[in-house]
Amino acid sequence: MKDKKQPVKIERSQPATAIPDALDKKWYGLFVICFAIALYINTLTHGFTQDDAIVIYDNMFTTEGISGWKGLFTKDTFFGFFKEEGKANLVSGGRYRPFTPAMFALEYELAGNSPWLGHLINIMLYGLLCLLIFKTIQDMLKESMTYENALWIAFACALVYAAHPVHTEAVANIKGRDEIVSMMGSVGVLWLMFRYHDTRQTTFLFYAMAVFFLALLSKENTVTFLAVIPLALLTFRKNATSSARQSLLLVVPFILFMIIRTSVIGSGFGAPPLELMNNPYVKWADGQYVPFQLGEKTATILYTLGKYIQLLLFPHPLTHDYYPRYIDIMQISDPKVLLSLGIYLLLAITAVAAILKKNLAGFCAFYYLATLSVVSNIVFPIGTNMSERFLFMPSLAFALLAAWALHKWVFLRFGKQAFYIVLILILSGYSLKTVSRNQVWKNDFTLFTTDVKTSVNSAKVLNAAGGALTTQAYDEKDPVRRKEYLQQAVIYLNRALEIHPQYKAAALILGNAYSNLEEYDKAIPAYERALAIDNNYQDALTNLAITLRLAGKQAGEKERNLQKSLILLRRSYQLAPNDMETVRLLGVVHGFLGKHQEALGFFSLVAQNQPKNAFALMDVSRAYNNLGDSQKAAFYQQQAISIDPSVMKGQ
Predict the structure, then answer these.
(1) Domain limits at 620?
(2) Are residues 485 and 564 in the same domain?
């Protein structure tokens, strides 16, 4: 009889293709998190870049450390950077995302103005997010398919998501943490709601509400999970109607968030501004910006939505900048627009079918459309055509659908080995692109001068590249390379102004580039153009005055054209009467013109403002000498010598 009981060992064994549950949870999850971190480990040595200035090193609240938290939670996200009210209106509806800036403030307290800690936390959070995706998808699918099938799909999904190159902007740019944290919170709430349904423990429901609130404080996109979560429950769980209803309690933290948000930045979204860098749906006509026609706007949005699909399938080329006119004004009759329309109609039909048939493909379509909706420019304007970071949340649908297709069409038909081969090929291509793309995010100079070659019609990146080259030229020791930087900057900035004639920042930097090339006759009109756009543009006023002074000095010393020099210096003096170098040069020119009394007046003004300036006193001495007053000339000469005896050298 004992021999008959021996087969019990066989009953406890697993099928040959199965893997023990404990091993799955430990090693598959560990591989996912290590894989995600490894892809971005090269960013640890990178600096701050792109919008990091707004939320980190140029934000007056963040740089205060923990003591700046009050300001971060009680002001618009832009306030700490611009330091004035009203800048929330730069983008429709303003921005209230205090949670991740509060994290940056804590990091600033610990590491100061150093980016390494920010990059480290970003890649660690990204690894944890990919692990959370693996766990959530596995739990979500466990009732609708076998354990092993759920494992392989979740594993492939998490790896495809981790490797996808469109995520580089969110992970390699420290500021992109708002995308990571809001996605972690959103996926975390989805996992908690499945745990609530499976265990009926109300603590999971309360945890979900708390996490949802924190995710909303990171980025408003989280709100789309109010639609995603109930459909996920109804699709992947039997008898989930009650749990789907309970998920509506997530509206409570959303309402709380909206109350706080409204109290801080107001409730109105306001009309989109007629300024190209904050509203891509305006065009230049008859010397002014006017809104797109309805057909133009609709077609341009549809084309942009199609571009998102292309980036998910074939993420090349990538760029951080899709501002006008990277995407041109489109027409409904364009074949690319019609193709995009067809794809999205198919996605919409598939999403509706998901509600009726409760299938994975339909859920992916619904999830993609729901999470993309808030950044599509359909619900409300977002200030730009598109951005790769806007795919950070919707791309999970692509990763899940790709994993499901791989499992269905490769794993089940050709086996595990074929599945691995195809998955590795996909991951290899994505990973190589991701790692190479990460290098571009090293610093602003690398980012802007690289992406300007892709976004050739984006006024914003043309301006940014021109600015980066101009700044780089300041520190360049090689005069040949310095000149090359400035000449390339001029090309980019002129192109930016062709695209956006009212781009005052581009006009300012163009003036700076020309001024550094000592092409003052071109720098002056550039500054004047900036002032014609905004007559209170202080940077343009200051730089114009300096350039007029430099041009006046050049006209006098090199061109020997004293009348031209006098005209330029007088203009400079009118703009900056307290610039003592301009005043001194006016004295010099008047002296050469034989107008010694006027020269004395200017030299005396310099000496009054700089009483310890020996050279200014010597100028006064020479002016008196030219006027024939040797007594006063000697007096001021002695004063100059008493301050600096070397003043007499070369006399």
Answers:
(1) 580-651
(2) yes
